[in-house]
């Protein structure tokens, strides 16, 4: 059943609410465990299918780590990260460095922009020093 105001199913609304309640990004598996703990009987495949739909609607962003793991958050949480490719440590940037960038209208005239992602990958101080010592 689809809510005519939001265009979302009850399960999609439930997933979006859980993401909004999380303090940070969450994996699909973590989200699935949270839903099971709150008596929401939803399979893991269904969770991922709804996450993909919510992403396509511009309501959820997905960030992929160098390990291949995907993390999800609502798009209104405009966080960007520095991620160490060695140990996986992630630091949140305090502000979005591209928030006020305007894309050329001639390139975006046939494109409805929903959200953006920005990720920086490198080595944290500890991993960099360890690699330099070897």
Describe this structure in a few short sentences.
The chain contains 5 helices and 5 strands, in the order H-H-H-E-E-E-E-H-E-H. By secondary structure, it is of the alpha+beta class. The mean pLDDT is 89.
Describe this structure in words.
With 134 residues, the chain is α+β, with helices and mostly antiparallel strands. It folds into two domains: 1-75, Arc Repressor Mutant, subunit A, CATH 1.10.10; 78-134, Dna Ligase, domain 1 (2-Layer Sandwich), CATH 3.30.1490.190. It contains five helices and five strands. The strands form two sheets. Strands 4-3-5 form a three-stranded mixed beta sheet, with no helix packed on it. It has a two-stranded antiparallel sheet with strand order 1-2. Strand 1 and strand 2 form a beta hairpin. The radius of gyration is 18 Å and the shape is flat. The protein starts with 9 loop residues before the first helix and ends with a helix.
Layout of helices and strands:
Elements: H1 10-21, H2 28-37, H3 44-56, E1 60-64, E2 70-74, E3 81-84, E4 90-92, H4 105-108, E5 119-122, H5 125-133
């Amino acid at each position: 059943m689809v809510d005519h105001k939001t265009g979302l199913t009850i399960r999609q609304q439930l997933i979006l609410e859980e993401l909004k309640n999380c303090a940070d990004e969450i994996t699909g598996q973590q989200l699935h465990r949270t839903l099971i703990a709150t008596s929401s009987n939803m399979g893991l495949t269904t969770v991922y299918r709804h996450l993909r739909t919510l992403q396509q609607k511009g309501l959820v962003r997905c960030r992929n780590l160098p390990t291949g793991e995907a993390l999800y958050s609502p798009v209104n949480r405009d966080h960007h990260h520095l991620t160490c490719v060695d140990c996986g440590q992630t630091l949140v940037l305090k502000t979005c460095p591209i928030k006020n960038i305007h894309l050329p209208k001639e390139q975006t005239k046939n494109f409805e922009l929903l959200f953006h992602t920005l990720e920086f990958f490198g080595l944290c101080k500890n991993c960099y020093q360890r690699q330099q010592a070897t």
